[in-house]
C-alpha cells in the first residue's frame, strides 16, 4: 500500500512539474511571438508614417493637406491614417475614419521619438496606434541632388518614393536620396545662394544638378545648362 502511495505521489509530482514546464514554455512562446509581431507591426507603421510625413512636408500649407493626403492615403488598404494639429484637431482622416476618428494619444511623443499604444473599438477589436511628430529632418524639409528633379522612382504606382538609409533622429547625418519635386510641369523652382529664384528643367544633366548641390566642389556651371 505504501509503494502504491509513493508511486501516485511521484506520478502526481512529475505531472505537476510537466504542467508547470508546459505553462512556462507556452507563456514564453506567447511573449516572444507578441514581441516579434509588435516589432513587425511597429516597423510597418513607422515606414508608412514616414511617407505621410513626407507628403505633409511636400504640401507646404495646411489648407491643402486634406486634398494632398487624400490622393495617396484616403483608401489605404492596410492602415487607417489621421493627421492632426498640436491641439488634436484632425486635419485629415482616411475614408474608414470619416465617422469616428482615432483617439488622441494620452501622452504626446517627444520630438524625436515614436509613441505606440493600443485601443479597442467596439466589436471591431483591438488596434495598434502610432503617434509621431513631423520632426523637420532632411527627409521632410530638405532635398538632395542625388537624382534629377521630379525623377520617378520605383514602388507602388502613383507614388514617388525617396531612399532614406538613416535619419538624424537616430544619430549622425542623413544618408538619403530626397528628390526635388514640384507640381510644375517639367520643371521646379529653386532658390540660389544669391537670393535669385530659377526654374530648373527636369531634363537637367545629373552632373550639372549635383554640381549645383555641392557646397565647395569647385564646379563651374553655366546657367544655360539648367534654367529656362
Task: Characterize the structure shown.
By secondary structure, the protein is α+β, with helices and mostly antiparallel strands. It folds into two domains: 1-134, no CATH class; 136-228, no CATH class. The chain has helices at residues 2-59, 65-73, 138-141, 206-213, and strands at residues 82-84, 90-93, 115-120, 126-131, 163-166, 175-177, 187-191, 197-201. It starts with a helix and ends in a 15-residue tail after the last helix. The relative contact order is 0.08. The model has no long low-confidence stretch (mean pLDDT 76).
Unreliably modeled segments: none
Distance between the termini: 105 Å
Number of helices: 4
- Proportion of strand residues: 15-25%
Helix content: 25-40%
Question: Could you say which overall geometry the principal axes of the C-alpha atoms support?
Answer: elongated
Radius of gyration: 27 Å
Q: From N to C, what is the helix and strand string?
A: HHEEEEHEEEEH
Count of individual domains: 2
Helix/strand/pairing category: alpha+beta
Count the beta strands: 8
* Sheet with most strands: strand arrangement: 1-2
Mean pLDDT: 76
Largest sheet: 2 strands, antiparallel
